[in-house]
């Protein structure tokens, strides 16, 4: 079996040798080199600086948060990288015909393209900030997590369900002081996100 890596290394320094295998080998070589270089750069930028849709100019399939970005910059680079290296392998190492090599290169490129797209979609889904509406808690029961002073004397904390999620929020009393673990009713939420609560049984808090 030929030394595949050695042959590829020779082609990097002597492109005339690539032409001996055919023009398609030269095309695969350029695709592999450029695709790999820019794929690594783009991946590092995504990892260390966060993914940015305005840089990629993504065409999303499915729409909405966590959409499957089939044609993002990263996935396109993954296609060129995969197709380039597979094409070189087919033509130089496996000695396949141009047509067979093109089919294999395209197929492998699509696989890597899909994998990169799925990875980016998963990353975005895990990293996106889940929004919630604090007003959904108004009128509902909450539990005092940190004692709440009487009205005007400071704030404490409550645990309350907001948009279906259990959260710990800052709260002030609409009346008397309220001890830990007491049940309260959320009467309103201020513009700054502070919950206003009142005890469900004033007698238990006196």
Task: Throw out a few tags for this protein.
17% strand, 48% helix, alpha+beta, 5 strands, 206 residues, rod-shaped, OB fold (Dihydrolipoamide Acetyltransferase, E2P), five-stranded mixed barrel, 2 domains
Description:
It is a single chain. With 206 residues, this protein is an alpha+beta fold. The protein folds into two domains: 4-127, no CATH class; 134-201, Beta Barrel (OB fold (Dihydrolipoamide Acetyltransferase, E2P)), CATH 2.40.50. It is built from six helices and five strands; from the N terminus they run ααααααβββββ. It has a five-stranded mixed barrel. It starts with a helix and ends in a 7-residue tail after the last strand.
Secondary-structure blueprint of this entry?
Blueprint: H1 4-13, H2 15-21, H3 23-49, H4 53-56, H5 73-93, H6 98-127, E1 141-146, E2 156-162, E3 165-173, E4 183-189, E5 195-199
Parallel strand pairs: 3-5
Antiparallel strand pairs: 1-2, 1-4, 2-3, 4-5
Helix pairs in contact: 1-2, 2-3, 3-5, 5-6
